[in-house]
C-alpha cells in the first residue's frame, strides 16, 4: 500500500462506504418497524377480551382465527415474544399463562393462552420482527457497495495519478544519451500539460547535450593548430632534455584532444545494431592485444551472441582490455552465458581502485593517481567511452575489487537466442 494510486483508491473506498453506511443507519433508524414492546400491548388486550368472552367452540371474531385445544399450538417458541406477551397480560390485569411459537411455512406467529377451564386458546398474531435473513441481506448490500466503490475509486485514482505514471514511464525510457523519448500529447488537460512539459524538457536537454558535444569537439579540434606550432618550436630547442620534455607533454595533449573528439563521435555516430558473436570478438581482441605486447589470456568462453553495433562494441571491449592490461599488469577474459544473459569478465592483477573512487572511475579524464600520467599513456577517457557504448546497446558495466587483489570489470548484455 505504498503507491499513491492505492492510497487514493483506499481513501475513496473508505469515504464512500462510510457515507453509505451512515446513510443506511439513518434510514433504518427512521423507517424501521415498531418495537415488540409497542405492538404486543394491543394484542394482549385483544387476547384478554377473547379469553373472557369466548364461547365453547371454534369461532372467528374480528378476522382473528381462534382454535381451542387441550395443548398449546406446536412450533418453535419465540422466547422474546412469549416474555413480552406474559408481561403485557399481567399489566392488563389478567395473568393468563401464554406462549408464542413460530410455525414453519406459516406467516406471522401463534399465541397460545391457557383459559381458566384448562383449555388452550390459539390465536394468530402478526410478526413485526425483522426478517430472519436480515444479516445475509445486509452483508450482500455492504458487499455490493464495497465492490462498486472499489471499481469507481480505482478508476478515478488511475485518472488522478496518470500524470505521475507518465513521469515514471518517461524517466525509465531515458536513453543512454540522457534524452527523453517523445510523448504523445493527448488525453485529459493535465495529461496533455504533463506530456508537453516533458517534451519541452527533452528538447532542452537535447539542445544542451548537442551544445556540449560541439564545444568539446571544437575545443579538441582547435587545440591541434597551436599544438602543431608548439611542436615545431620544440624541434628547434638546442637542449635535448628540454626538447624531449616538451614533445612528451605535447604528445599527451594530443592524446587528450583526440580522446575528447572520439568521445563526442561515440555519442553522435551510431553504427547499425546486429547480432554480434561475442566469443569470436573476444578472441580477435585477444590476438590483437598479444600482437601489441599486452599480457592478455583467455579463460572459459561460452558461445553467445548479443545485439549491438559491431564496431562500437569492439571499440568498447578493446578499451576495457587495454585498460586492464596496462594498469593491471595483464588480465584474463572470461565469457559465460546463463539465464538469457551474456556476462563478460575482465580480471586484472593490478592494485585495483580505492573503494571510495570506484563510483568515479567512469568519469571523463579520471585517474586514480595523477602521477601515472608520466608512466602510463592515455587521456583517462577509455572507461568513459566504453561505458557510453555499452549502455547505448542496453548493456551494463560494473567494477569491483577482487578479493585476491586486482580489479574485475564485468559487462552484461541480453543474449540473442
Main pleated sheet: 7 strands, mixed
How many DSSP helices? 9
Shape: rod-shaped
- How confident is the prediction overall: mean pLDDT? 78
What distance separates the N and C termini? Answer: 38 Å
H/E element sequence: HHEEEHEEEHHHEHEEHEEHEE
Bin the strand percentage.
15-25%
pLDDT below 50 for ≥5 consecutive residues: which ranges? 56-63, 370-376
Gyration radius, rounded: 46 Å
Q: How much helical structure, as a percent, in the residues?
A: 40-55%
- Overall SS class: alpha+beta
Structure summary, number of beta strands: 13
Short description:
This protein is of the alpha+beta class and 417 residues long. It has helices spanning 4-31, 36-53, 79-91, 134-172, 189-235, 240-268, 278-291, 310-327, 382-392, and strands at residues 60-61, 64-69, 76-77, 98-102, 109-114, 120-125, 273-277, 296-301, 305-309, 331-338, 341-348, 396-401, 407-416.
